[in-house]
Design brief:
This protein has about 260 residues and is α+β, with helices and mostly antiparallel strands. It has helices at about 1-25, 50-60, 75-90, 105-115, 130-140, 155-170, 215-230, 235-260, and strands spanning about 30-40, 60-70, 115-130, 180-190. The protein is built from 8 helices and 4 strands, in the order αβαβααβααβαα. The protein starts with a helix and ends with a helix.
Length: about 260
């Protein structure tokens, strides 16, 4: 049984490599302005650096690569529970959750593939289940079973029961029944370099700190006080005008920041 499962995994791995090569050869003479991948396959790809390089190759200059995939903290509760249960019951542990990439590694891989102006965002979605068994059945129904080569071919009932108890004890809800499962989603945007793109500003060239935007009201009151003082002493007028100019720039930056958020 174990030999048959290993042979099936080897065949699937070879088929994946063949299909990936066929896909990129089909589009060898084409180029795209946008390639979008949404939670469908990147977390299953064995050669993620090679895939990013192929995507970079078929993109036009100034083309955009956008996507989302599961992050490294996905299902960390399940991973910890099974590791502790196996160490306690069997004296060692193996992988029971498929490996995922982290946000830092994702940025490094995209940068190494040639993408620039990277943007990476992280979202964490908490889903509640009655017990660990419902979580495992749900993962099986999603087609997200563990596919690690180092995984064991079977799980003992005692180990599963221990993992369920550890999961509930360490991560269970305090105010209600059930257990949470965290799915970390990494969203990314990368661009293929082009001469039309604006270069990044030099380090240290900024004139204002974003921390000062939250102090606009305080700065406004200080300027008003200085204006009142300047009427008594004209020598302070130049300093007041400089502060007023800085305040206008900060207000403009704050408005621009608000527009981007909306």
């Amino acid at each position: 049984m174990l030999r048959g499962n290993l042979m099936l995994l080897l065949i699937l791995d070879v088929v994946e490599a063949i299909l990936r090569k066929m896909f990129f050869r089909i589009w060898w003479g084409f180029s795209f302005s946008l390639i979008w991948q949404n939670m469908c396959c990147l977390h299953w790809v064995n050669d993620l650096p090679g895939t990013f390089k192929q995507v970079h190759r078929v993109l036009r200059d100034d083309g955009c690569f956008m996507g989302a995939l599961f992050g490294g903290e996905t299902l960390h509760e399940l991973r910890v529970a099974f590791q502790l249960a196996e160490v306690e019951r069997e004296g060692g542990f193996s992988a029971h959750v498929s490996p995922f990439t982290s946000a830092q590694d994702l940025g490094s891989l995209l940068n190494r593939a040639g993408f620039v102006m990277l943007t990476i965002d992280i979202d964490e979605i908490i889903v509640s289940y009655p017990t660990v068994m419902e979580l495992m059945y749900d993962l099986k129904g999603m087609g997200e079973n563990n596919c690690a080569w180092s995984r064991r071919s079977m799980l003992h009932r005692e180990t599963i029961a221990a993992a369920s108890a550890i999961y509930k004890e360490k991560f269970g809800h305090k105010d209600k029944d059930g257990v949470p499962a965290m799915f970390q989603i990494l969203y990314f945007i990368g661009w293929k370099p082009d001469k039309s793109q604006l270069p990044a500003a030099e380090k240290g060239s900024g004139q204002f700190s974003m921390k000062d935007i939250g102090q606009l009201e305080k700065l406004t009151k200080e300027i008003q006080k200085l204006k009142q003082i300047s009427t008594l002493d004209p020598r302070n007028l130049e300093a007041v005008n400089e502060l007023a100019t800085d305040l206008d720039k900060l207000q403009t930056a704050k408005k621009g920041n608000g527009n981007e958020e909306t």
